[in-house]
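Quick illustration for those who missed Monday's session on complexes.
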Amino acid sequence: MAEGSGLRILITNDDSIHAPGLRVLEQIARALSDDVWVVAPESDQSGAGHSLTLRRPLRLRRVSRRHVAVDGTPTDCVLLGLQHVLDRPADLVLSGVNLGANLGEDVTYSGTVAAAMEATLLGVRAIALSQAADRRSRPRWSIAARFAPAIIQRLLEAGWPEGVFINVNFPDCTAARVRGVAVTRQGRRKVGDHLVEGRDPRGEPYVWIGGLRGAEEAGSGTDLAAVQAGWVSVTPIQLDMTHHRSLETLKRCFGAGYLENR
Ligand code: MN
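Prediction with manganese (II) ion bound:
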């Protein structure tokens, strides 16, 4: 498969060019193609969301011919990767493998997911990949490494619509306990972050945004429930955030010349 597949893959992440998960993703990509390019942030951009650097220039550091570090966000990396670094278009953008799951509302904060969003906006198929992990023990990169190539291959064969990307999360369990692939919807758990108040060494007060608190029970069919139960979660996400069911209600509400200029 690898040799001469013709598939050009751009990989990036939000954990930085130094992250172990990026090396795992490079292995995964190399199982699919020998034409793999890496454009990733110089520093950890977790939580950067879909931010774009506009108020300063970006610097590129060429680590090797196919490895470039950018002192910007994951979105900057995809934009520069696709439109500046590569001499011809990529067929696929892979982002990750993130240290920690990107489930439920995480997708709105995640730089890993935002990189897939940016590729989608630029018309390139994209998959975000995250490895669920418990901060108290070592990340199980072997789970993503083992299951990702076949899942990506299958996704590419099946295809998905324009304006959509795929969010994949690997469970934090041993390979023997992985139950399979579950196609899921985006769940929801956020009810508030834990805010830690303190004083800095100069005595000035600060507030530090800590972990999520009060996580609710994950709903059935969601990405959250699947990963908790040991499934690899595969969620199609659309960039069109219009809530279509509300369109008719709002049209009625503002219909019949409401505030119309005569
Ligand atoms: Mn991250």
